[in-house]
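Researcher: I'm preparing a figure for a lab meeting and need a structural model of a single chain. I don't have an experimental structure, so a prediction will have to do for now. The sequence is pasted below. Please return the structure as tokens so I can convert it later.
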Amino acid sequence: MGDLKAKLCAARRELLSPEKSGGGGKSKGFEVQRFGDSRVALIGFPSVGKSSLLTALTGVQSEAAAYEFTTLTCIPGVINYNDCKIQLLDLPGIISGAAQGKGRGRQVIATARSADMILMILDATKDDAQRQMLTKELNDVGIRLNKERPKISVTKTKAGGFKFNATCTLTELSSEVCFSILREYKMFNVDVVVHEDATIDDFIDVLEEAGTAPRQYCRCIYVYNKIDMLSISQVDQLARQPYSVVISVSKELNLEGLLERIWQELDLRRVYTKKKGHFPDFTDPLVLTCQRGNKTFTVENAVGLLHKSILDEFKSALVWGSSVRASPQVCGLKHELQDEDVMQITKMTAAEKIKKMHGKKTGTTLAGGNTQVDPTGKKEKEKKAPLKT
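Model: Understood. Here is the structure written out token by token.
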């Protein structure tokens, strides 16, 4: 089974890879510059309400009509929420077989790969097959929805052969299965460490990350539109499903709840800056996300967003907020910040910069130069020297 899945993955990779001939390049209408603090893409079948939702949330007029494929290019908009700017992309509707290029599906999915989160717009009056078909199309091109990267470590070595170790009980993977899959990838000198009960597909995903089709693990919210046409019990059943939000764009029902859910899933953290002797600036915060910078919520990432040159002069940071026990508290670069923290940066003095550049000096120096002499060795030489009579 492991051999067959590895061969199937290789065949699918060759099938889905774009053709090199024919003068490729970027597709006109899908080149959208990244703007704001985060990016969200709207994915769905034609005529489910994507353009209407973009207009309701951002105010951008996107053409909406009763016929299918009204939107043919990527239409961007910006959501201003909690002092943050969230870019919302209205993409054309995709059809079955979009991963193979039907209906400009490759361009749509390629733009969706650049998003920090996906809103899958579904018609609440139809069955759940539309959700399964869209998930399959995204899964075929390497987009994993609401999943974390498998905790599997694969390290190539120059020699030593195949080594396998597991820190937990495995039900599907084994040393023989991993060796069989690695043989299909022509990897023979490898150290594999499995930290969770992963599947064969998870192991193949880890191997594909180093290739031409890396996997992307993305958050997804399933948005069921047109709930005004359902009964209360049907709406309640849809709303209780995981990662699901029910709305009605035409009746403007639960749009605020959708914005709040987007905010929670993106996990944006606002950090306000403060100058010495002044009040904090609460108008333009630094927004930290797990997709930007070094993908952490530390002081180092916040300082790097201001300007990377400040990191060379950074000494410490005074932090007010829920991330510290006492306000203010002196913190270093590795301190993790929380939402609505206030940070004041302290830079090094000129003497501290020189000390950092040359390091801490120990011992004495000879007169007329910077040659250092070890005091311990000097004393030992004096002890060994014969006493003068």
